[in-house]
């Protein structure tokens, strides 16, 4: 099957008997061979989730035609993509560069499955870093409500113009309006530090130090209008001890932020992240 | 589907297109709903592995009848079991009780999916521990070749009498005869300490200390006549440093042995462990 | 030095130059040899912390006499104990036995450095488990405010009678009165589950499931009157995914609770846990 | 103490009473304040190891004069260095660039505490990578015994010329002569992959795949003439499963090699790695 295409098919619908049989029948009809398959039935929402990788020599139109009766009969949300096609990804940043650097380094090394048409920022600081990786950078100051509104309009314009599939908040330090959250629902990811227990308010690393936490970490999640409370995609922690200063805790936490965000972007770009109400299904 | 049975179906056959469709068709015919499904195509052996959980209201005979045309057509090895049925498990021990204690505590807490009709040992030391958990204990000294042969015959008798499905060597310190290994192939699990690099010969913790290893761990594997070289089921390690004495290394290693063995037994009891030549497929 | 005693000396005082020299001078005078030494200067509180292990053939009175000029000059809080002397430890439990089982198993195996004169509970369920390990068990129902007061008085009586050095809340599910917390300050340890982010209120595992967390864990901490907010001693987490039910999350969380609590008790018994305001210094 | 120097002092001698007192007395005399202190008495070799960080306003000659009576009296091996002084480090490579890239990236980011006057290789492949980081690169083919001898002579010349303090084998694929190992004893570090169990011979990742290992890792160690058997400095592992191809295992293993080697170099550069016979003491 040397000239076959390697497809990714994701499906979501109400759970009921016969789905797998119907889908695998469509794959047989499309002369496809299933090379990877994962499914999950959510007891919480009654929804069924499936991700397939299929090798097949037929073209997209024929594959879609083979799928149509099934996706229609089960009222499925579905997506058909090709393994390895880079996802068009807009990155928003402010001043801290650790997440952006990790994303662009891995993107260039071919580890992430994304392409980045633009980096946007409310500060000029990271222009040089973007330039080093050959990525366009746009600086738009956000000093008041008008500036913020203009920034968000520009984001939506860029999303439309470049047909952006994913927006990544790589330590972008502005709170998004509910309207922007809604417009990008399901395709915008944020990263933030995480502690056990959580700390509210300013200077969380200082608070974590004061309390003497033994683990610090990071959480990547979808952005919803409920600040920092969207569905969790990935979390990591690392062990620390009493000798660490607040600044060292922050450096360690930033490493966790970088790798947690990059991992989440990679999974999203491979269509391994599906939403089930307030939870995510991760088909690693 | 309140009075439905929750089935586990495992299948192995040569890989080829159409298997998933055929199997899911049989499930549809059995009025079943697939609640969990995992598959793997081995590039090494050309074999296809599948594990399904299926809810269905029909009885075993009808389910098997629905499966028969498919399992026969693809020349499948297959097994049909019920979720939660405890696996009949014989445990062999010697003097060290850490693995037995962990197994019996978790078994009683309902975390392991096994029942233990008997613990057999070549030493009397652990009789009291077994008694606390209400498990019969049989002590048979092994002082010479005859004693060893008698012990192994007794094992096979117990396996036959109780229809034992799994034998666990929970720090049983006798080498098994090739005949016993062969008779129990694919249903006997051992645990042993592991280091990087490995150490041959006596007093491995002392050797590990002398070399200053930074990680020590444990490996659970199927027993074959090739000593400690059977297919690996699970491995864990934990970090140590230069301040540890050989005795402390041993205590740490024993903790890893306990949790690694219990994890492996749990997966086996849930039919999540399949063999692919010298490797295992673990459908977690 | 075959008949030497192996001492543990812990010291806390305001940080200033010359302390190490003064302390080591006292050790020389006591004909002692330092076999382990750790120190920490807290930038937060300006306090200096030190833990020494010293081999010396002299008796306690002579050692204390050698130390007296130094501890007095630097206004030190200090403690002198003997390596391996088991700490008298009272354990409080309710219904869940996983932490108690882990503590008693490790205690009997000589891994914890404690002795347990009594287990007290507001429920009868764990009497049998305590009996298996040969530990006295006292059941006192707590059904109302009076019962609670009586229970707490009994705790203080036991602490006095057995000269208890450590109280462990091994899933004891009653909130302690501020008076009891104050009376046992610095020698009472609690364990509870931990998540990122934290969840307030009932059924935390159900909440964690609903939010789809990817890590769950446990925190051991000193008890203060500020509920679950005392100085943290140890934390652990383990990775989970979307397939886990709330019950499975709870089982996984309980494993983390057991090992985190046992680890904390072991460090405390070895005088490796010192308090620095709201933080702990852990001299592992 | 704003114009104080921050010193690192490491000491090794036969263990005996009074060392800490004597050393801390010399520090007092040098008007120093101990900010970090670690010690270890080896039960294996009877040697005592100590590492201090000391802030003091006096110059090197005065500090050494204060130490001289003590180091002489206890016949100490000792070293006095300044925190943050970059260690002169020669890196040897062959074709694989992952370790070199990680070392140079971290070196430039100021995370490693080294400077690299030269990269030497028996292949030309990595010249461009070295150039990107602005590091001189010397290619010397090694095609026969003469070429090998010439390469090793060149290494010793570079070590002498640049006063090299550390030689790092960053996947340098030639076996060193016993003479070179002896000449660089205690200041040459190698990295190699590690498995449980170990695999001898060619294509270890293929063997590890065939055996279905669940953990793969890396070991950094001092080089001795006993191939791959020198004192271990650091080890790491990462979890893998049955879906990984041999090539993927290799990619994962290379990540572990990179981070394990960089970690070891960092500790060495901070004088945190001391040798105790066949073991290392790591004062993290």
Structure description:
Chains A, B, C, D: InterPro entries: ACT-like_dom_sf, ACT_dom, Formyl-FH4-Hydrolase_C, Formyl_transf_N, Formyl_transf_N_sf, PurU, PurU_ACT. Chains A, B, C, D: Its EC number is 3.5.1.10. Chains A, B, C, D: It is an enzyme of class 3 (hydrolase). Four copies of one chain form a homotetramer. The first copy, chain A, has 284 residues and is an alpha/beta fold. Chain A has two domains: 5-82, ACT domain (Alpha-Beta Plaits, 2-Layer Sandwich), CATH 3.30.70; 87-282, Rossmann fold (3-Layer(aba) Sandwich), CATH 3.40.50. Chain A contains eight helices and 13 strands. Chain A has helices at 19-29, 60-73, 98-108, 127-132, 145-161, 178-183, 204-211, 246-269, and strands spanning 5-14, 33-41, 47-56, 77-82, 87-93, 114-121, 137-139, 166-169, 188-195, 215-222, 232-239, 273-276, 279-282. In chain A, the strands form three sheets. The first copy, chain A, has a seven-stranded mixed beta sheet with strand order 7-6-5-8-9-10-11, with helices on both faces. The radius of gyration of chain A is 21 Å and the shape is globular. Chain B binds chain D through residues 40, 43-44, 194-198, 209-215, 217, 219, 228-229, 231-237, 241-243, 245, 276, 278-282, and chain D through 40, 43-44, 194-198, 209-215, 217, 219, 228, 231-237, 241-243, 245, 276, 278-282, 284.
